[in-house]
Write a structure and sequence with these properties.
By secondary structure, the protein is an alpha+beta fold. The protein has two domains: 34 residues, no CATH class; 142 residues, Umud Fragment, subunit A (Ribbon). A hairpin with a 2-residue loop joins strand 6 and strand 7. The strands form two sheets. A seven-stranded antiparallel sheet has the order 1-2-11-3-4-9-10. Helices cover 21% and strands 30% of the residues. The chain has three helices and eleven strands, in the order αβββαββββββαββ.
Amino acid sequence: MKVNFMKKPIKILSVSVLTMSAVLFVLSIGARISGIYINTTPSLPVGFYKVVDEPIVNGAYVAFCPPQDEVFDMARDRSYINQGNCTGGYGLLLKRVYAQPGDTVSIDQAGIFVNGEYLPNSAQLKADADGHALPQYRLQAVLNDAEYLLLSDLNPQSFDARYFGLIARDQIQKVVRPVFTWSH
């Protein structure tokens, strides 16, 4: 008599995975409704961020909807950014503010300078991990009253202002503050 022990454990495992997926989905919706964002990307510390009523200043973390353009279309198509409810089908992005209106910004392949100071991990890459060419954004300007420079402060491979440039004030939806984060 031959007994197959694998059928039942696989069925239990698939139910467990489905149950876990459903629980995580419900938790993420509940978190979003309560003003909590869950960051799973390496651009910022992984963890939970809460919406706060604070001004947009240098060093603040912000959630923004990217403007609809070909650079963000490319980013969505290559899965640099998630799909979501922002115009263009883009997901909301979290980044840190590194320059605000009145700051002098220079962006080239060597990196980004704000008010004459070089920002670490800001050199542009020519290609992504799959060998696809990355946009080579260039800028030398004093930011106007509605422009912000948004970057990752952790990940030198992050898709950020090095490739998409400045973000307008009306694209920034919220200021967020880390509640609970951990290393990758």
